[in-house]
């Protein structure tokens, strides 16, 4: 830990990206306060999004009985009840309707003129409102991935661990937690203090997946 | 900059996430070598993905004439030609077919038994191969968002800047750069040295978008 120019304790960036692993065993005695979780989410949402719409929403499941309710929906993965909390990352399909609030705040802070803010907001609502549902959903999934990755890194930087989970029944999840069709579940992220370190994993050779200036002939 | 336990120079994590902004004006005199870009991508791909399939692929456009070709496709945004490179983040819809290679490597390194690797690979190919196209595409967009965010942070940590771009004509992009239907364009990321700092932007109040244990009644 070192101290930033703004006086915040922070580990080195390289240690965070190299230290982050998917952790599946958590210390059940460690819980996080609402303030701690809110702080992690606040830092996660410094990430960018399409037109700065920030369509991400977070349902934080931390009550013991609710984690138990979630566990079978998440195919009985043990981290669901062991972790301090499971964060359901949601995409709000009506998120773009907050464009007024978002750009209005930017104008208030002097980041843009009121005129620009008004015109941005109008254009955004009209553009996103007329997108085919499929295209809107793709944007929301991409933005959901963006904020999820920043959240996992932020958690690590604060000494916690995570595991992203795609294995769950989305329909059951929505029914069990009263999530309306307005919201799309992107992923579950278990959050807590590791009881056992995550397994190392491999990556494809970078030269197999990077193409300079042209696609390979055989693809 | 401080030095990690492994001797790598690295800034503080908090400075990276707070310092990253979408930069739209680049120093045209600064170019990155293939080695530098490959190193950034290598660190980006330390990010997690669904079943560790790593469906991300990177088309790095850095030749001047190709950036000029891309610019009108990206709605004439000036950063396309000003930046050192534009990285087209692609999702490979056949990425899961590399499960053998990925888990096989994990077995070789002793991270899992050969039996487990073989069974994981078989299950992965069968499971992803039978997913409805729409579901597969959602996973690929989410994983694309995950790696894109890590790439933007990694670039900042190395003293470079980025801007994610969703504004481009995907069909024209695919035609101009011989990208087959096997690949889905997720976003363009301009990469280079900032000539002007990015504008500050606002974020929604965290309590407006965070729900503890239950969804709000009106939503």
Kindly list the characteristics that best describe this protein.
homodimer, 219 residues, alpha+beta, NADH Oxidase, four-stranded antiparallel beta sheet, two-stranded antiparallel sheet, 7 strands, globular
User: Major sheet of chain A, described briefly?
Assistant: 4 strands, antiparallel
What share of the residues of chain A does DSSP label as strand, in percent?
15-25%
- Quick one: CATH superfamily of the domain at 12-94 and 133-196 in chain A? NADH Oxidase
Report low-confidence residues of chain A grouped into runs of 5 or more. Answer: none
How many strand elements of chain A? 7
Overall geometry of chain A: globular
Q: For the residues shown, what is the average pLDDT of chain A?
A: 95
Percent helix of chain A, as a range, is 40-55%
Number of helices of chain A: 9
CATH architecture of the domain at 12-94 and 133-196 in chain A: 3-Layer(aba) Sandwich
Assembly state of the chains shown: homodimer
Structural class of chain A: alpha+beta
The chain pair with the largest interface is: A-B, 91 and 91 residues
Element-level helix/strand string of chain A: EEHHEHHEHHHEHEHE
State the separation between the terminal residues of chain A, measured CA to CA: 45 Å
CATH class annotation of the domain at 12-94 and 133-196 in chain A = Alpha Beta
- Rg of chain A, please? 20 Å
Stated plainly, the CATH topology of the domain at 12-94 and 133-196 in chain A is called NADH Oxidase
Order the strands across the largest sheet of chain A as they lie in space.
Answer: 3-4-6-5
């Amino acid at each position: 830990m070192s101290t930033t120019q703004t006086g915040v304790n922070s580990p080195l960036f390289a240690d965070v990206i190299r230290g982050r692993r998917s952790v599946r065993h958590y210390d059940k005695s460690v819980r996080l306060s609402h303030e701690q979780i809110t702080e992690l989410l606040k830092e996660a949402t410094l990430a960018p999004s399409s037109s700065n719409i920030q369509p991400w929403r977070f349902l934080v499941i931390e009550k013991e009985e609710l984690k138990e309710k979630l566990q079978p929906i998440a195919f009985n993965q043990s981290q669901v009840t062991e972790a301090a909390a499971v964060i359901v990352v949601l995409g709000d399909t009506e998120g773009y309707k907050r464009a007024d609030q978002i750009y209005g705040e930017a104008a208030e802070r002097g980041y843009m003129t009121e005129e620009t803010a008004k015109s941005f907001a109008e254009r955004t609502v009209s553009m996103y409102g007329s997108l085919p549902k499929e295209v809107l959903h793709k944007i929301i999934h991409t933005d959901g991935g963006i904020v999820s990755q920043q959240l996992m890194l932020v958690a690590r930087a604060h000494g916690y661990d995570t595991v992203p989970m795609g294995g769950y029944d989305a329909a059951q999840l929505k029914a069990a937690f009263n999530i309306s069709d307005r919201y799309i579940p992107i992923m579950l992220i278990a959050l807590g203090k590791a009881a056992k370190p995550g397994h190392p994993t491999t990556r494809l050779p970078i030269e197999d997946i990077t193409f300079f200036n042209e696609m390979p002939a055989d693809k």
